[in-house]
Amino acid sequence: MASASGGQREKVVLAYSGGLDTSVAVKWINETYNMDVVAYTCDLGQGQDIEAIRQKALRTGAIDAIAEDARNLFVDYFAFPSLAAGALYEGKYPLATALGRPLIAQLMVRVAREHGATAVAHGCTGKGNDQVRFDVTFQTLAPDLKIIAPVREWKWTRTQELEFAAKHGIEVEATKKSIFSTDQNLWGRSIEAGILEDPWVEPPPETFQWTADPATAPDQAEEVEITFDRGRPVGLNGRELDGVELINELNAIAGRHGVGRIDHIENRLVGIKSREIYEAPAAVVLHEAHREIEFLTLSKESLRFKTQVSQTYADLIYNGLWFSQLHQDLMAFTVSNQQYVSGTARIKLFKGHAQIVGRKSEHSLYRHELATYEEGDQYDASAALGFIKIHGLGQTTQAKHQLLTGEGSRRLELPSIIPPSRAE
Ligand code: ARG
């Protein structure tokens, strides 16, 4: 297996998680492609010891292994921008996994250049979105690099994979492999497969690691105050906090109250509907708080248009199209749209719920002098009369000349508007 003297083997940078698949992939690539593996691991806040993973990669046969902290990059360039854009896939999923992939792939391309590698590799299967996100990013940023996807290529059963591992002395954790397939970073935990594949089955308690069961969460509600500056969270409970710390703290606080569980029948890019469970306490609270500051500070028209941008932006992230011009265009809109989205939201956490209870902003468009029924009212109610007349003019004209005349005189009766549900 050692490289023949004189001829150096080509190198591939492998996204290495320390798990069974990517460990087996190291040896499998050595054998199948006759290439050397440089293992790449980054910390996106998944709560693992990346130095231990790096050591394992070297023991497993990688010629080199890199482990780096990418949490700040992840928060500043991925999680928080997606929050400002209001990106929730299908209105539910805060996109933790989807946001991590383009960053990992981009960092791997850098490592590939530094090491003179000719290929990159990942451990994704052929059924999911993650392979698409990795491959499209690699193909976009480094079209010259070959892409190797061992798990997609070897088509083994789990038993065959374990046999290969045993034959090559690859460490298989003594602990029973998780019954689920999971991925996690600061922005959330994704859990799928196993019993969760039955969409009728309630996720069993062992699905969850970051959130308390709402039924046994504290009986005492807890309030958090989140401060935003132009759409980005900058403070928690009155303290200025760095993004990574803020998310970590909020994950702990909201998780304790059972906030952040999401159960989603999701439309994968590859045409499959799949049942996904997410735990994203901080992301859920931050999206809620952020939206409330938007309600306070964005005009009605901006709010409505923003909803469309949010959906397009979420699809773009989900579908792995991060490095596109459309992304830059949407972000240019978002930055402009968020310029007054500064202020503080008060959110009450209680048994699985995150409820807005108050908000304030220097740029608030909620004007007490316009809204009040008490003294100090500056709203000109006499102007309402003329407004109503003009606003309704089209409809009242139509009623007078069409809907209320002759044959059509029954057209405004309820059964004419809503047809009976079945023939009499
Ligand atoms: N369905 C989610 C997504 O496409 C999560 C994927 C999670 N990956 C995993 N290995 N469990 O973003």
Would you kindly provide a written description of the structure presented here, covering whatever features stand out?
By secondary structure, the chain is of the alpha/beta class. The chain folds into 3 domains: about 10-175, Rossmann fold (3-Layer(aba) Sandwich), CATH 3.40.50; about 180-300 and about 340-370, Argininosuccinate synthetase, chain A, domain 2 (Alpha-Beta Complex), CATH 3.90.1260; about 380-415, no CATH class. It is about 40% helix and about 20% strand. The chain contains 15 helices and 14 strands. The protein has helices spanning about 20-35, 50-60, 70-85, 95-115, 130-140, 150-155, 160-165, 245-255, 280-295, 300-320, 325-335, 370, 380-390, 395-405, 415; strands spanning about 10-15, 35-45, 65-70, 120, 145-150, 180-185, 190, 220-230, 230-235, 240, 260-265, 275-280, 345-350, 355-360. It has a 5-stranded parallel sheet with strand order 3-2-1-4-5, sandwiched between helices. Strands 10-9-8-13-14 form a 5-stranded antiparallel sheet. The chain has a 4-stranded antiparallel sheet with strand order 6-7-12-11. Helix 4 runs parallel beside helix 5 and helix 10 packs antiparallel against helix 11 (about 325-335). The model is unreliable at about 1-5 (pLDDT under 50). The structure holds arginine. Arginine binds near residues 130, 182 and 276.
